[in-house]
């Protein structure tokens, strides 16, 4: 496999179909993408009390994400230091300590060794085996942003803030609707026969699929927006390590647009207080409301506003989801419902209902999305797929020039376009290409929002 | 638990078998007619926990938490020509066993527990899958007919191995 040539093809939007199924490439992804990038593990609201923990994975590495007895969130490699047993075998719980079932080495909830049977007799006591200085291996890097806990297996990874870059502007719109931030429920977990990148690309920028794939949810009156015209007028943006899609809303006022999607007055007031003038401007004059988004490599968000009862009540919901690769053609989806912690109870209940109807394991949008992704993955396994380059060039002409100019009056960072285009899918795969080639896509590199050297016409 | 020769046990068992027939044949409108107006239809997410924390449903998260409105919307979606995930449709077989009926809170309502093994086959390429667990239902007599007033389905898997829940449990 000529990796350089493959990445060059990907950057010009001609995608070798085999990147969605190839086992060799997946092994390289494990090392070069998932071994280096910042990866989402959990939200701090999943572990509110001291001793609360969840167990999450980065590829084959299991981590205990725990709030220790001092309130600090820690990410600990879930492997006993003695013989390597998986220390915690539950998915979630609360504990003051973990005791290995093999020989009973015991650790407190900061990860420190607090008990070794026959410590003096068997090991010669503290002078030989210094338990007081011995702790479970922490994740090489772990940091939080707005309560989202990320880790990286690369000890030399840049700080999380530099990694996310200007995408944090948009991340706030999902994860910081008040000073208190989010609370999450879940995750729902299920396994699908699809390559993870298809999901990441779809959420990053595929506004083009919505009117077709999700035609049924419009027909049954569940969600009124996804008609082609409304999607086309929305903006596609990319900034830092992520990008997303928006819908164009009808009004020219911050309050009216947020009310249109179902936010009550008190929540709108809090958003007006915590969002910067530019963040508010996005919703106000151009009337762009965030919908789906992806943070490279495999964390996505969605924000939609369906009708939740017979009386026509429209309420928005937020979901976070992780596309956890299990293999080149298999992915575990972890999907959380998220809502602002200060939202009124009626809103939390209705928003939860909205989420369950639309996304997650039973969601009426997600059902049809996964059908597409599994089908693409299945087709990509064959011999002919190795010869086929999928066309992901929407928005570019024959000479790789942009068919449309980016928006001049975009209030946010990065670059944005209206009209259909596969700018964001190419941007996601351009970052992927950088990692696959062993380059540092964060560092001082130019923002990857325009992966081909596009010249305006 | 009511004895197996109790008339209420028989009625409950018959209800569940007839319901499975409707679902396996995608006769969804008739299935919806079995629901009471105040139906609560839930499938909590199962979480693996230590024995001390008692496993079971965790975090207040569900795969399904439906009322009549959302069940109707789901059925209406299957009736459109654009519910791609069930086009072509799954072949399903619901095996409902270990039925136990209990006297209910009011005379006209019984609590019924049963095991469900849902086999699902789709297309000609992908492997078939299963959704397996235990139902706890409340059956209520409305105008002389039994209706489903409440269902809680506790699934055995914490990570589902089926592509989606475009099937009812």
Strand order of the largest sheet of chain A: 12-18-17-16-15-14-13-20
Look at the structure and give the mean pLDDT of chain B.
94
Structural class of chain A: alpha+beta
Helix coverage percent of chain B = 10-25%
For the CA atoms, what is the radius of gyration of chain A?
23 Å
- Please give the largest β-sheet of chain A: 8 strands, antiparallel
Q: Tell me how many strands of chain B there are.
A: 6
Number of strands of chain A: 20
Name the helicity range of chain A.
25-40%
Poorly predicted runs of chain A are 444-449, 453-457
- Distance between the ends of chain B: 23 Å
Distance between the termini of chain A: 35 Å
Order of helices and strands of chain B: HHEEHEEEE
Q: What structural class results from the helix and strand content of chain B?
A: alpha+beta
The fraction of residues in strands of chain B falls at: 35-45%
Q: What's the gyration radius of chain B in Å?
A: 16 Å
Uncertain regions of chain B: pLDDT < 50 for 5+ in a row? none
Largest sheet descriptor of chain B: 6 strands, mixed
Q: How much strand content do the residues of chain A show?
A: 25-35%
């Amino acid at each position: 496999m000529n990796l350089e040539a493959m990445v060059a093809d990907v950057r010009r939007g001609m995608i070798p179909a085999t990147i969605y199924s190839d086992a060799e490439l997946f092994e390289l992804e494990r090392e070069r993408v998932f071994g280096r990038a910042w990866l989402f593990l959990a939200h701090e609201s999943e572990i509110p009390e001291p001793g609360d923990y969840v167990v999450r994975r980065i590829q084959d590495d299991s981590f205990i994400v725990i709030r220790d007895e001092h309130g600090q969130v820690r990410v600990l490699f879930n492997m006993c230091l003695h013989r390597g047993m998986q220390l915690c075998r539950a998915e979630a719980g609360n504990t003051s300590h973990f005791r290995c079932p093999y020989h009973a080495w015991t650790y407190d909830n900061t990860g420190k060794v607090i008990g070794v049977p026959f410590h003096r007799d068997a090991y010669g006591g503290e002078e030989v085996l210094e338990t007081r200085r011995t702790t479970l291996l922490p994740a090489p890097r772990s940091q939080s942003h707005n309560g989202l806990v990320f880790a990286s297996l690369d000890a030399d990874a840049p700080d999380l803030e530099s990694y996310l870059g200007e995408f944090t502007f948009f991340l706030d719109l999902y994860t910081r609707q008040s000073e208190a931030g989010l609370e999450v429920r879940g995750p729902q977990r299920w396994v699908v026969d699809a390559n993870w990148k298809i999901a990441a690309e779809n959420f990053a920028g595929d506004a083009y699929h919505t009117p077709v794939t999700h035609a049924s949810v419009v027909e049954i009156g569940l969600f009124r927006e996804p008609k082609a015209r409304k999607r086309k007028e929305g903006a596609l943006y990319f900034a830092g390590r992520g990008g997303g899609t928006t819908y164009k809303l009808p009004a020219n006022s911050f309050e009216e647009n947020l009310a249109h999607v179902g936010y009550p007055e008190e929540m709108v007031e809090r958003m007006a207080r915590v969002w910067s003038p530019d963040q508010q401007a996005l919703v106000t004059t151009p009337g762009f409301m965030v919908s789906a988004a992806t943070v490279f490599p495999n964390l996505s968000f969605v924000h939609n506003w369906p009708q939740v009862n017979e009386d026509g009540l429209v309420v928005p919901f937020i979901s976070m989801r992780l596309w956890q690769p299990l293999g080149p053609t298999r992915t575990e989806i972890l999907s959380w419902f998220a809502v602002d912690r200060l939202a009124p109870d009626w809103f939390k209940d209705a928003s939860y209902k909205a989420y369950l109807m639309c996304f997650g394991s039973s969601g009426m949008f997600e059902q049809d999305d996964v059908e597409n992704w599994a089908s693409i993955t299945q087709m990509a396994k064959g011999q002919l797929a190795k010869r086929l380059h999928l066309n992901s060039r929407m928005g570019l002409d024959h000479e790789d020039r942009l068919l449309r100019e980016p928006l001049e009056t975009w209030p946010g960072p990065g670059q944005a376009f209206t009209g259909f285009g596969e700018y964001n899918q190419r941007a996601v795969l351009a970052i992927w290409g950088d990692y696959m080639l062993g380059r540092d896509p964060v560092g001082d590199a130019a923002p990857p929002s325009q992966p081909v050297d596009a010249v305006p016409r | 638990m009511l004895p197996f020769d109790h008339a209420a046990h028989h009625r409950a068992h018959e209800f569940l078998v007839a319901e499975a027939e409707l679902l396996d044949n995608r006769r969804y409108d008739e299935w919806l007619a079995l629901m009471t107006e105040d139906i609560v239809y839930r499938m909590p997410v199962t979480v693996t926990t230590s024995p001390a924390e008692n496993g079971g449903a965790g975090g207040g998260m569900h795969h399904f938490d439906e009322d009549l409105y959302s069940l109707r919307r789901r059925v209406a979606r299957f009736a459109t020509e654009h519910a791609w995930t069930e086009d072509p449709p799954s072949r399903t077989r619901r095996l409902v066993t270990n039925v136990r009926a209990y006297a209910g809170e009011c005379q006209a309502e019984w609590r019924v527990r049963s095991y469900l093994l849902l086999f699902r086959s789709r297309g000609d390429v992908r492997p078939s899958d299963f959704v397996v667990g235990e139902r706890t239902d409340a059956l209520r007599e409305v105008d002389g007919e039994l209706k489903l007033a409440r269902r809680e389905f506790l699934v055995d898997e914490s990570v589902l191995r089926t592509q989606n829940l475009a099937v009812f449990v």
